[in-house]
TrEMBL record:
UniProt cross-references to Pfam families, sorted A to Z: LRR_R13L1-DRL21, NB-ARC, Rx_N, WHD_DRP
Coiled coil: 35-86
Record domain Disease resistance protein winged helix: where: 429-501
Keywords: ATP-binding, Coiled coil, Leucine-rich repeat, Nucleotide-binding, Plant defense, Repeat
Domain NB-ARC: 185-344
Residue ranges constituting the Disease resistance N-terminal domain according to the UniProt record: 13-97
Keyword flag Coiled coil: yes
Keyword Nucleotide-binding: yes
GO MF terms held by the record: ADP binding; ATP binding
Protein name: Disease resistance protein RGA3
Residues in R13L1/DRL21-like LRR repeat region domain copies: 597-715
BP term (GO), one: response to other organism
Domain of life according to the entry: Eukaryota
Length: 933
């Protein structure tokens, strides 16, 4: 039975009673007395809620009292929310120039009617609360003081949640079962190894250890991880397997036969490892269908690992005895506890503290999840004062039975700061195993009023992010995906922690399954645990649920409505929303109803902002982008190049739109100026720069101070010829006294697309005057497409992925590099001869991949004059694993020199019309060959 958690509701209700809208109603209708009495009664009830919520577990009478209070609080919340909205609306209408037109709406009759309604509803709520408040006296609840909200600021890096203790032998056992079954007398093509154990023992963690084991990595060519959870849906599992191959995503409701064919195509003949994690339920026939299919397409020596809590599932699915995962022994339990509870995992210096810690540890029963969460919880408490209290007061209520693990974890929840409790409870709306979008979760918390700034100037998103990090550090979230720049992106919840969220979330939260339509009156937040495709229409009960606060739909895809070209203009008046912090798009037009750039002047925006239609923008400095220090992404879209007369105007507009140096990503699109603004060099925190459809610009802006730039995209720049030119106002400034140059030292990804006039990295006078030693030293991904004039480029020793498409192979693959970088190579083919005549100042290398020893993937697309591949100089590509040819219509054959590619695993030749398929020496590592006509 779910707990009743009312403290967050009561706190939010108190805050709303003090809001601007309610204050306006108090002033207009002399309602100060009634609303103040309501707040006072609510305050006395709030003071006992902490004790009441704890005692509901052991007292049915207390639980009954909380249920009555819950109904009143929700009704009061609805009423006060209505009052606040009405007050804000009337406050906005006050003084408006159109107030005369709506005078009848605010007639004295209407005002008297509303005042009468308001007084009656407040009286009913107050009387109900008074009765409940009086009834509380019989329980002698302990009164607690209001808790101050404190957001922990990181003083150290996160504890590594992947740190595992005591599972090395288990990992070795499973690996041996996987790899040694071929020598077994029982010949099973695809063995299935079940790992079984109660929740929290670390079944998933053990499977992850095996999945990433070095021997496993070498043995299996394809490794796939699928989280199954409650619903064993064969079609869905097949889709996940296909998507995990990372060669095209399958979405929608594909027929099973189509999935079978795609599955065969993706994994036919490969030695595969498949992990089916967290299997709860299955129909025997469904498993037989999937097992037979996998046995058909997988190569002998493949294997399947299944993790489950239920032995009957293990018995049905396994081809061998289930692997029973046990608890940690005392030594490993103590080592894990120390890592969680003590700084740097050291032994406590105080013997008393160690004794208390070991008594607490004994109650965790050797269960890693319990040890982790209790240890992390205690890490935030004082060992000398709080730990003894915890041992004496809370631990006696916990049994050591395995199925009571939730009681142990409940203690971690009980010790959470009050502001984090509703945030965690809200997560019960997500399905088990769901990948949670962190920013979306924070916005949902904000919408519910869970985020509480301690000062007026604090940003709600920033506080919400700190809330999330605090919960993560306490192990309420796991498997977090992090970006170095953006921080946490996604996360998951452990199944047992999810069970805890459902237990404590209360009756106001409900996840609806297929066919379930009825909603109880106390439900305020619902989510759907099924695919919307099976729902023909939304049940009328949902649509009529006036008290519903949250309705979370299953995520089918991500819809960016703000990118729609149908938005012709942004209306005027946005500038009056001075508290607005997120504005995804501002569309300017000559429409008299359109907002202008000055709408941004008073807005303290953060996150992402796209401004479209800048050729119509006036007074760009009025936008004051330079003051918006919290903007992370900015797109300046001029939506059209215009004629020669507009060039100076667009240059002036761009110059006036200088952003704050904190900006991380910038896009300039459809810009009609001849030159970029000088302020680009001041964006010292820029990580990604995209210049698109700036057809008049002949050279790139100076970026010599953009030391953090990791990604550069150049697209549709018709007039661009060179990246580096020998003047002080170019892409980089090259002085005559320099002995060498490191251009963009952090750049990792470089895309050049549709640059018809682009000839090369630097002009010949640069190469003659300077020894360019290092260009993009960290570059790992290079894409060049539709650059027909390109005749030379430097080689990059760290490039791992290279894509070339739709141009002349003879020109495009010619690489001119400084003499110091590569020794002389004799060029014999026609391509090198034509290039050698073009310049004698640098070494010309045709198709020499010598510096690309780390290249892992090479794709050639639409190279119309490529006849054969490769030649004798391919031995430099010793690391190449993936080689693809697409739409190379004159490619005839692959030469015997392909045996130089000793690491090649995947070779694909698609839509190459003249390819004859002549045999070539087999490469030792090749596991996938596809020739598609």
């Amino acid at each position: 039975m779910a707990d009743i958690i009312l403290k967050p509701i009561a706190e939010l209700l108190t805050e709303t009673l003090r809001s601007a809208g309610v204050e306006e109603i108090k002033r207009l209708f002399d309602a100060r007395g009634e609303l103040s009495k309501l707040e006072s009664t609510l305050s006395t009830i709030r003071a006992v809620l902490v004790d009441a919520e704890k005692r509901q577990i052991s007292s049915e009478q207390v639980r009954d009292w909380l249920e009555k209070l819950e109904a009143v609080l929700y009704d009061a919340d609805d009423l006060v929310d209505e009052v606040n909205s009405e007050g804000l609306r009337r406050k906005l209408m006050h003084g408006n120039e159109i107030r005369k037109k709506v005078r009848t709406f605010f007639s004295s009759d209407n005002q008297l009617a509303f005042q009468h309604y308001l007084a009656g509803e407040i009286r009913k709520i107050t009387e109900r609360l008074d009765a409940i408040s009086a009834d509380k006296e019989r329980f002698h609840f302990v009164t607690s003081l209001p808790e101050e909200t404190k957001v922990r600021v990181d003083s150290q890096s996160f504890v590594d949640v992947e740190n595992v203790v005591g599972r090395d032998q288990d990992r070795r056992d499973i690996v041996e079962l996987l790899l040694d079954h071929e020598s077994s007398t029982e010949k099973i093509k695809v063995p299935v190894i079940p790992i079984v154990g109660m929740g929290g023992l670390g079944k998933t963690t053990l499977a992850q250890l095996v999945f990433n084991d070095e021997r496993v990595q070498q043995h299996f060519k394809l490794k796939i991880w699928v989280c199954v959870s409650y619903n064993f849906d064969v079609k869905l599992i097949c889709q996940k397997i296909i998507n995990a191959t990372k060669r095209g995503i399958i979405i929608g409701d594909s027929p099973m036969e189509e999935l079978r064919e795609i599955l065969r195509e993706r994994i036919q003949g490969k030695r595969c490892l498949l992990v089916l994690d967290d299997v709860w339920n299955l129909e025997g026939q469904d498993w037989v269908v999937l097992k037979d299919l996998l046995a058909t397409v997988c190569r002998e020596g493949s294997g399947i690992i299944v993790t489950t809590r239920h032995r009957w599932v293990a018995d049905v699915m396994g081809t061998m005895q289930p692997y029973d995962l046990g608890i940690l022994d005392p030594k490993d339990s103590w080592n894990l506890f120390k890592k969680m509870a003590f700084e740097h995992g050291r032994d406590p210096t105080n013997p008393t503290t160690e004794g208390i810690a070991k008594q607490i540890l004994a109650k965790c029963g050797g269960v890693p999840l319990a040890i982790t969460m209790i240890g992390r919880m205690l890490r935030f408490e004082d060992p000398e004062t709080e730990w003894p209290s915890f041992l004496e007061r809370d631990l006696p209520n916990i049994t050591q039975q395995e199925n009571e693990i939730l009681q142990t974890l409940r203690l971690s929840y009980d010790y959470l700061p009050s502001h984090l409790k509703p945030c965690f409870a809200y997560c019960s709306l997500y399905p088990k195993g769901h990948e949670i979008d962190v920013q979306e979760l924070i916005r949902l918390w904000i919408a519910q009023g869970f985020i509480k700034p301690s000062t007026p100037n604090q940003n709600l998103e920033d506080i919400g992010y700190l809330y999330f990090k605090d919960l993560f550090r306490r192990s309420f979230f796991q498997e977090a995906e992090r970006d170095r720049l953006k921080g946490f992106i996604t996360c998951k919840m452990h199944d047992v922690v999810h069970d805890l969220a459902i237990q404590i979330s209360g009756r106001g939260y409900k996840m609806l399954s297929s066919g379930e339509a009825n909603l109880e009156s106390h439900v305020r937040h619902i989510s759907l645990d099924f695919n919307l495709n099976i729902l023909r229409e939304v049940p009328s009960q949902w649509l009529q649920a006036e008290r519903l606060r949250s309705f979370l739909l299953p995520i089918q895809s991500h819809l960016e409505f703000d990118e729609s070209d149908k938005i012709t203009h942004t209306p005027r008046g946005l500038g009056q929303l001075t508290n607005l912090q997120t504005l995804s798009q501002l569309v300017l037009s000559e429409n008299p109803c359109s907002g202008k750039l000055d709408e941004l002047k008073r807005l303290n925006l953060k996150g992402n902002l796209k401004i479209k239609g800048l050729k119509n923008g006036l007074e760009p400095k009025e936008a004051k982008l330079k003051d918006k220090q919290h903007l992370q992404f900015l797109c300046l879209d001029f939506m059209g190049i215009g004629d020669d007369a507009s060039t100076n105007k667009q240059e002036s507009v761009l110059e006036g739109l200088q952003p704050h140096p904190n900006l991380r990503e910038l896009v300039v699109a459809s810009y009609g100026g001849d030159r970029f603004s000088s302020w680009l060099s001041s964006l010292t925190n820029l990580v990604k720069l995209s210049l698109k459809n700036c057809s008049r610009c002949r050279q790139l802006p100076s970026l010599d101070r953009c030391y953090l730039l990791e990604e550069l995209v150049l697209m549709d720049l018709d007039a661009l010829e060179y990246i580096i030119v020998n003047d002080g106002d170019s892409f980089v400034s090259i002085s005559s006294s320099s002995t060498g140059l490191s251009v963009l030292p952090s750049l990792q990804k470089f895309t050049l697309e549709n640059l018809p006039g682009f000839r090369g990295w630097w002009r010949s006078d640069v190469a003659e005057s300077q020894e360019v030693q290092v260009v993009f030293p960290r570059l790992s991904s290079l894409t060049i497409s539709r650059c027909p004039s390109l005749t030379f480029m430097p080689c990059y020793p760290n490039v791992e992925e290279m894509e070339m498409g739709f141009t002349s192979f003879e020109r495009k693959t010619l690489m001119r590099v400084p003499q110091a970088q590569i020794s002389a190579t004799t060029t014999t083919d026609r391509a090198s001869s034509s290039s050698a005549a073009s310049s004698s100042t640098t070494l010309t290398v045709s198709l020499s991949f010598y510096p690309l020893s780390k290249l892992l993937s090479l794709s050639l697309d639409g190279i119309v004059d490529l006849h054969h591949f490769p030649d004798e100089r391919m031995n430099g590509l010793a690391s190449l694993k993936i080689l693809r040819f697409t739409r190379c219509h004159r490619l005839n054959y692959l030469t015997p020199y392909i045996h130089y590619l000793t690491s090649l695993e995947e070779l694909e030749i698609a839509d190459c019309q003249q390819f004859e398929g002549i045999e070539w020496p087999e490469t030792p590592a090749l596991t996938s060959l596809r020739i598609l006509k």
